[in-house]
Design goal:
four-stranded antiparallel sheet, mainly beta, 3 helices, single chain, disordered N terminus, two-stranded antiparallel sheet, Trefoil (Acidic Fibroblast Growth Factor, subunit A)
Length: 427
């Protein structure tokens, strides 16, 4: 399947495993680097570009993320699937973690914090970010080691607290790591996850799905540059907030103050106010729809995304968009429309505008469309860039494909003809 624009890395194999007639064709959209590919079916000719070979294992894990699942090698998969192979997300995220020296940052902590190697104790802990070598980590895919200043990240299994520190490399499993699709860094000694204590020290404990301290990102892949946010109607105006618990509004001028700086975390889908007094996250008040700053939590009313029209929506109700009120200039959530007071610009941030059409290889004149009966997806012969029923986007952390019209998520019917249709997204 050919995926246009930003969906290229993610939807390979949406319609199924490639057939023998398509596997030998070297399609441009399947020539993906290891950094791009998340999960899917790839042609055998693409193995060299992925740094994969026939003997490499395809790693997986159970839903709890506690242990490694034994899966066949790539060579074994080639024998069974003939024309193509399935490369699991673990193989590719292994390459994607750190392909060059860079910082590792926590998702949960607002502000400018990075993993740091203490010069004296060698402990790894959170410290204000800087550009010195003791904050520059490199992941080595061949050995699964994370290195800093020539030492390896080590899970101290002799310590009851499972402290993590930088130790001379020795090649044992307590120095081998991998990442999963939730942004967690998992040790291969007993498949527990990297976490952080209230005091900021790194340690290892059992993996859990809702533990924010276990989620990490690499700025090279997910930069979190603080940015002002402007309304399309007036690019000289900026979002502003009086502090935690206060409503957001559009202020007539930009002054580069802390209360006008925001950043978006693609792992948590939150908009943070990292520099404002009290800090916090953007939230929707379900009572009046006002957008305000408050403490961060896991609710869907703090999970945001921007559609291809520049409108900001959240997961609580994807049919509603953020709007600048013409009376008091407050930002509030209302039904989406085409008016410019629902469109915003995030010039230096990383808000994912990831909607795209999806087209099959065999007929690039057709597009995947969600406007069919019973919400079944079908191929439409009439492709339109302004047709929301033909726009989709992918969120890596949830591994879901959403439609831009706000109906829901792509779902496999699971029985019978196995139709793919839009269904309400399940938490």
């Amino acid at each position: 399947m050919k995926i246009v624009n930003t969906l290229v890395p993610i939807l390979i194999g949406l319609v199924g495993v490639a057939t023998a007639s398509t596997a030998s064709v070297n399609h441009p959209s399947t020539k993906l680097s290891a950094k791009q590919l998340l999960r899917g079916t790839v042609n055998l000719t693409d193995l060299p570009s992925l740094n994969l070979k026939g003997g490499d294992p395809v790693l997986g894990q159970d839903e709890q993320g506690d242990k490694e699942e034994e899966l066949p090698t790539i060579a074994e998969l080639v024998q069974t699937q003939k024309a193509s192979i399935h490369v699991d997300r673990e193989v590719n995220l292994r390459h994607r973690l750190l392909s060059s020296a860079g910082q590792i940052r926590p998702v949960f902590k607002t502000g400018n914090w990075c993993v740091d190697r203490h010069h004296d104790t060698q402990n790894l802990y959170l410290q204000v970010c800087h550009q010195h070598s003791n904050q520059k980590f490199t992941y080595h895919a061949s050995t699964q080691e994370i290195k800093v200043d020539g030492r390896c990240m080590d899970d101290n299994i002799e310590d009851t607290g499972r402290n993590v520190y930088a130790h001379p490399c020795h090649g044992k499993k307590n120095q081998k790591w991998r990442t999963d699709n939730k942004g967690r860094i998992q040790g291969l000694h007993d498949y527990k996850c990297l976490d952080v204590t209230p005091g900021g020290n790194l340690y290892v404990r059992g993996c859990c799905n809702n533990c924010e301290g276990q989620r990490w990102y690499v700025p090279q892949h997910f930069p979190t540059t603080n940015s002002e946010i402007h309304p399309v109607l007036n690019s000289a105006a900026c979002w502003d907030v009086g502090g935690t618990g206060k409503n957001l509004y559009v202020y007539g001028s930009c002054h580069n103050g802390n209360n006008q700086q925001y950043y978006y975390s693609p792992y948590s889908e939150r908009i943070f106010l990292p520099l404002a007094e009290g800090s916090g996250c953007l939230d929707e008040n379900p009572g009046d729809g006002n957008v305000y700053a408050t403490g961060c939590h896991h609710g869907t009313n703090q999970k945001w995304w921007m559609d291809s029209y520049g409108r900001i929506r959240n997961r609580r109700d994807t049919s509603r968009c953020m709007e600048q009120n013409s009376g008091d200039n407050n930002l509030r959530m209302v039904g989406c429309n085409d008016n410019d007071n629902q469109r915003f610009i995030f010039p230096h941030g990383t808000f994912p505008i990831a909607t795209s059409q999806v087209k099959p290889f065999f007929d690039s004149g057709k597009c995947l469309d969600s406007g069919g009966t019973d919400r079944n997806l079908y191929l439409s012969s009439s492709c339109g860039s302004d047709n929301f029923y033909q726009q989709f986007y992918f969120m890596a952390q949830s591994e879901r494909i959403y439609d831009a019209a706000g109906i829901g998520c792509l779902d496999d019917q699971g029985s019978g003809a196995r139709n793919v249709y839009l269904n309400k997204c399940q938490e």
